[in-house]
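Anyone else keep sequences and structure tokens together like this?

Example one:
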Amino acid sequence: YPLIIGEREMGFDIHGLNPTEQTHKKPNLKLYKQDEDLWHEQYETWEKQDGSYFRNNVWWWRRLVDYIFDECSDFLSSDDQGEWHMNNGHEVSKALAIKIADRMDRLIEIGHAKQHEKMISKKIMKAVEHNKKIKLEHDALRKKVISKYKLKDPAPSNYPDNENKKWDEIQSREDYDAHYPFEVSNVREFAKFCRNSGGFSID
């Protein structure tokens, strides 16, 4: 399930290193200390500019990155793929960003990205149906624990040892494909960002 910090899902903030067309500059921390509301207003204006900022939560980003590396393997090293899944400031050059944009736009144009979207949608639907059965098993186990041990509202971590192991075994059969979406619109937005980013960092 989505990881939440405050009211925002954990994810990946992708920042353009040198956006090609930028009318509004990113506000600095000095302004933030002087007028927080004005800083947020200027920040939102800045991040809406092409090439400045792109964001995906952890679920959308994984599918997008997998697709990019599968389809750009002739110029992206698989050794770097792990770096794309870390919030450590990994940088991608302007030249590579443009090549990614060109490749993604081409895959959209020829219908490849749409076919991939349909394939992922089928995987998700299958996983969702499978996980409904997993939930029924979890619910049945929970009722058993409440009845047998007279527990009011037990979390799985508080189940007695045997039932806790059973919960883990059931959970191990959950199909996480259900949680990772893919849509052409997300590919298109990222391609647009790449083309105008001047290179980017993954934070």
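And example two:
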Amino acid sequence: KSEMYETGVVYLAGAGTGNPALITCRCREVLERAEVVVFEPSLSDDLKELFPAGCERIEASPGGGGSGFRTVSGILIDRAEEGKMVVRLFEGDPYHSGSCVEEAKALTREGIPFEVVPGLIEGLSALTFAGIPLHPGGGANGFSVAGYPLAGGKSLKDSAFCALAAEGNTLIFQTRSDLVAKLSSELMAGGVSGATPVAIIE
């Protein structure tokens, strides 16, 4: 939806790739009117320059776990109950963050109106910037995007990703550069050919 609330609302917004020129029009629109911005610690300085000069700036608690979720959720609820327009700014797309889901649930429980503002997903946008098509020559059946390491410490060789690769799907992993060798080894241990084309984008 595209309506603009007047007061007492939270916008769970995605900042996309981190490049201010690539945020959505809707994200820029809500940021321009924000009275409070709650943002990720890793957000770029260039994006922070888009925050209104007089707004309250609050860095979201790092670390992911339950206490962090509750702390951020409490801030969002408190500021909205004061009648303020709050923007909770995430990297990439909001719903690619587990904390966004928890915060949306908390807002729903408290009856706080909120809107989710989508953002570009880094894992897909990086391919476009690098000139790599998701379906090269029509050869790929589909694609999957995942973080690595996998949740719960699960090995890639025991996951569905190896079977997806064998079926001609493109696999996209967001990870640290020092984990690339381990990622590759786990895929090959799961049956993915060592001759499979690969690209590493930093």
